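User: Round two. Same drill as before: sequence, then structure, for each protein.

Assistant: Same drill it is. First protein:
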Amino acid sequence: MQYSVCRVPWEHAAPLLKTVRERVFICEHRIPKHVEFDRKDRQAIHMLVCDDLSQEPVATGRILLTGEIGRIAVIKEHRKQQLDKLVLAGLLKVAKDLDLKEVFIHSPLDAVEYFIKHDFCPVGAVFMEAGLPKQQMACATMDAAVKKCYLSH
């Protein structure tokens, strides 16, 4: 399968980004819609991955100017393609382009090992967010395991 990875602003791609996040976070994970979509979406830089054959959006993620990475979501049927790594690599490239020294994510506990493999380290204690236990994970952008990722703008 072939995929296109694009860096997009919310105002241009909101319907596509929402499609992915609604399927993953609202339908699968039962996150309330008013929690999933927040004011930060308008300020964030988003990554969007589309299936080249169907032209359907299949993955997304966002980064804020504070370095907070979040809302990484991949449609269930495409998870074996490891599109999460493409999204993360794209977000880390954006962080470097913005000259951010560090990025962080509020990771679900079952994903902590995944982020450790990508050069993130736990910071602080476990906390609750949207009714789920989370661990803040941080990474210096110069240490981040960024694979080659070609972005369309």
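Second protein:
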Amino acid sequence: MTVALTLFVSGNATAQGMPTYDNTNFISLVKQLIESGKQTAQMIKSVKFLKDAKEAIEKVSSVVQQLRAVEEIGQNNQRLINIMQNDVQDILNSPYIKPDAVSRVVESFDAIVQNSLDTVDFIDEVLSSDYLKMSDAERAEVLKQKEQESNEMVSNIKTKTKRYRDIISFRKMQDKVNNRETGY
């Protein structure tokens, strides 16, 4: 019997072995996969946080732009009021503005003031309601446009005021020339 066994084992016998699994490597691989999953989940949370932060910054930026535009419009309206209280009153009280010109002066300045009041009402409407469901960026753009119009109104009223002051100055000089004493 020992001979037969020896022949059997020592002969041309080839046996295929069963695959063996190393439990240590398998456990290590599972741990790596779990850790990788945790890192991926953390990266997804970070990306979401950054996206939310970006949106918040954009909203704040838009609000800041709106506030600056509203502030500038308010300052321009204050300039208009100051010009109306001081300069226009001086122009109207000048003896060198003819009575028939007073109504034209008042009408031209009144149109600018009315436009300014309409702008304030429009801004109040834009800021206090959704105004046709505008986004913050669209609202900021509208306010920026109104700010530009407000700047133009201030420029326009300054130009008109200067023009009327120049007319008064010219008429004053003309009056002095016409009424000077001639007795050399």
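The mean pLDDT is 80.

User: Perfect.
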